[in-house]
Design goal:
Layout lengths: L1 H11 L3 H24 L6 H24 L3 H5 L2 H14 L1 H4 L6 H10 L1 H10 L1 H5 L1 H25 L9 H12 L11 H27 L4 E2 L9 E2 L21
Antiparallel strand pairs: 1-2
Helix pairs in contact: 1-2, 1-3, 2-7, 3-5, 5-7, 7-10, 10-11, 10-12
C-alpha cells in the first residue's frame, strides 16, 4: 500500500516533487522522439538496440506504475493511450518486427501533455505557457499530425520505394504534400501510394491548414459569455462581440 500511495502521489499529487516527476517523464518521452528521429538516419548499430531496450524498460516501468495507481483497471486497459504504450514497448523490444510503429511514441508524449494534471502543472510553473496555452496545444497537435502521417508514408513505402529510405525522406514528402508545394522529386509508388497521396492532400487542405491557422491567428482568451456562450474573446475585450454583454475577464495588468 505504501508503494501504491507513493506512486499515486507522484502521478496525481500537487507537491513540487510530484510536478517535477511528471515533467521528467514528459522530458523523457520528448527525448525518445528526438533519439528515434536521429537514430533512423544511422546504420544499425548495437548501441541503438541497447538504447531501445533501456527506453523500453523505462516505459514499461512507467506503464506498470500507471496500472498500479489506476482506480479502474478495466477502464484503464480500454483506453487507446494504454494500447499505444503497449505497442511502443513491443516495438522497442522487437524493432525488426514492428520498427515502423516506433513513431507512435510521439502520441504518448501528446497524451502526457494533454492530461489535466500536466496541463495544470505547466500553467502553475510557467507564465508563458499560461498565456499561450492554446497556441502551444495547437502546435503540438500539428507536429503529432505530421509525424503520424509521416509514419504511415514510411510504413507503406519503405522497401518498395527507392525514394523513401528513412523517416526524413517520408517527412520531406509529407510536408511538401500537406503544404501543397509538391516539388515532385519524391512520389509514392503503386495504387496504395497514390491513394495515400490523395488522402494526404485532402488532409492538407482541411486539417493541416486549420491547425496552422489556429497557431498563427491572433491570441484569444478563453472566457464563456454568460448570455450567449461565446468562449473566445480578445484579451482586452470589454464587451462580447456576439451579444454585447459586458465581460469581466481577469487580467494581470500588463
Amino acid at each position: 500500500m505504501q508503494l501504491r500511495s507513493r506512486l499515486t502521489y507522484l502521478y496525481h499529487g500537487h507537491g513540487r516533487d510530484a510536478r517535477l516527476f511528471r515533467f521528467a517523464v514528459l522530458a523523457f518521452d520528448l527525448g525518445t522522439i528526438v533519439f528515434f528521429v536521429v537514430s533512423s538516419l544511422m546504420h544499425d548499430e548495437p548501441w541503438i538496440y541497447v538504447a531501445d531496450a533501456v527506453i523500453a524498460i523505462v516505459i514499461l516501468a512507467d506503464f506498470s506504475a500507471q496500472v498500479v495507481v489506476a482506480e479502474d483497471r478495466v477502464r484503464h486497459f480500454l483506453r487507446l493511450s494504454t494500447w499505444l504504450d503497449i505497442v511502443v514497448i513491443l516495438s522497442l523490444l522487437a524493432p525488426t518486427v514492428i520498427e515502423c510503429l516506433l513513431f507512435l511514441r510521439v502520441l504518448r508524449a501528446l497524451r502526457l501533455v494533454r492530461s489535466y494534471r500536466v496541463l495544470q502543472d505547466l500553467r502553475q510553473e510557467f507564465a508563458f505557457f499560461k498565456r499561450n496555452e492554446n497556441v502551444i496545444a495547437s502546435t503540438i497537435n500539428l507536429f503529432v499530425f505530421i509525424f503520424v502521417v509521416t509514419a504511415l508514408v514510411y510504413v507503406l513505402q519503405v522497401g518498395s520505394n527507392p525514394d523513401i529510405t528513412n523517416y526524413v525522406d517520408a517527412l520531406y514528402f509529407t510536408v511538401t504534400t500537406l503544404t501543397t508545394t509538391g516539388f515532385g522529386d519524391i512520389t509514392l509508388k503503386g495504387p496504395i501510394g497514390r491513394l495515400l497521396s490523395v488522402l494526404i492532400m485532402i488532409l492538407g487542405v482541411a486539417l493541416f491548414l486549420r491547425l496552422v491557422q489556429t497557431i498563427f491567428r491572433p491570441s484569444k482568451v478563453s472566457y464563456e459569455c454568460p448570455d450567449c456562450g461565446l468562449n473566445r474573446h480578445d484579451p482586452d475585450a470589454v464587451h462580447c462581440k456576439h451579444c454585447g454583454r459586458v465581460l469581466h475577464i481577469g487580467t494581470e495588468g500588463d
